[in-house]
Design brief:
The chain is α+β, with helices and mostly antiparallel strands. It contains 3 helices and 7 strands, in the order ααββαβββββ. The relative contact order is 0.21.
């Protein structure tokens, strides 16, 4: 598989993990050699397990009974053989857990990936409105 497709697969698996809110699948996407960071609209989370627990499980799972992260216009900039930056616009399709009402918002997302033992892994994710 070429690098472009492998990187797109990481983005797709990230979207799937957000949708399923599956902690283990989410953690597998992150580097185990570099402490990852995720910057949400309002908070900084560090370390794959903390990101999974505090961002995915506590924030997303608590707020939404359903969430789909839809990536639009994905751009991949492969900086080197082992480093890539992915930027895309996104929108969400959510159901708020407390009111059962539909909700969604648009934004921009940046993902930084490194190649680790032959596989592309996340080291940084940044959400912007």
């Amino acid at each position: 598989m070429d690098n472009h497709q492998a990187i797109l697969d990481v983005v797709k698996h990230y979207q799937d993990a957000i949708h399923t809110q599956n902690r283990e699948d989410f953690i597998k996407l992150w580097s185990h050699k570099v402490q990852g960071q995720l910057i949400s609209i309002t908070h900084l989370f560090q370390g794959a397990e903390n990101i999974a627990d505090d961002f995915l499980c506590d924030r997303i799972h608590t707020a939404y009974s359903k969430i789909d992260l839809i990536a639009d216009h994905i751009e991949i900039n492969q900086v080197s053989e082992d480093l890539a930056i992915v930027v895309f616009s996104y929108h969400t399709d959510c159901i708020k857990r407390d009111t059962n009402e539909p909700y969604g918002f648009p934004g921009l997302e940046t993902q930084v990936l490194i190649k680790e033992e032959g596989l592309w892994k996340l080291v940084h994710v940044h959400y912007s409105k």
